[in-house]
Amino acid sequence: MHWRAAKFQQSHPRGIRCTLCPFGCVLGDGDVGRCNVRRRRGSELETATFATSVRHIHPIERKPFYHFLPGTRVLTLAAPGCTFRCTYCQNYRISQFGRDRNADWTATSLGDSIDDIIHAARAADAGIAFSYSEPILSSELTLALAPRARRAGLPVVWKSNGFVTLEAAEELAGAIDAVNVDLKTVDDDAHRQLTGAPVHPVLAAIRTWAKRGVWIELSTPLIPGFNTSPESLRAMATTICSLTELGPDIPWHLVRFHPDYRLLHSPPTHPDLLRQARTIAADEGLRHVYVERALGECGRNTFCPECNALVVRRDIWALKRQFLDAAACRQCKTPIAGRWNTP
Fold first, then answer.
1. Of 42, 43, 11, nearest in space to 26 by CA
2. 329 falls within a domain
3. How do residues 318-329 score in pLDDT, each as one tens digit?
């Protein structure tokens, strides 16, 4: 592990407080935060996340983003660590570093090779994505990459749990172009049970980023018996509708759960349950609700909310064809919310 100076800190009578995530760890000299990738050394806070365990080229649809530059690709980076302890995490060998004995440090330090990332992304005609683990813990790396990425015309996107302080969310809004936030539930007790953290900071971060012009999409793993009752689904859909200025146009991805890590007793999400969730979301007013595979092509296509014409046709993790003119439906000219790469 290679440590370097971190941002987001303030003095505290008992040491240094980390102000990146709402846990606000107060660290004495030599202490490591709950995330296991931020520490205090002397009078400084340091981070180990100027590093990555992966360098994968993926379609942007795989993050998933459906309304942000469809058909493009991203170079995906991931440093170990996460602020959450999700019991079903399929990426726990990266995300649960320092908590699980099977989660070893596998990252390669980037050192001064930021420009190498930019060159690799440009060579692959790709943007830059942070995924698999928690991008918020890679805030310093994101802030270092973002100006170079902008100059090169490359978008920077996150797949995040959204658990960040408002101070950090405000500063990071200028560095990221789009975020897909994992919103597990809007019930605070249930959220704490699954992740070990409250949900209110996540909702606040979504609002902050949206107000600052960051494109937002949401994802929810539907875990049978946890967040799949009609009441829970209705509460999520209602909250999402009023969460940002996008209102009912915010894309919501319903993710099929499969047993993994420590949550092995729950069955995989049945397609009927995904279909019911999509219907409830539509009844509550949401216009763009997606299921990647389990409901076939119809579950991942985009339809005009006014005339129901097909406006974006997708394959699994891929764009097939767009039927948009100037970001609007070709049939009725209704604008379709998104950041589209159309004339």
1. 11
2. no
3. 999 999 999 999
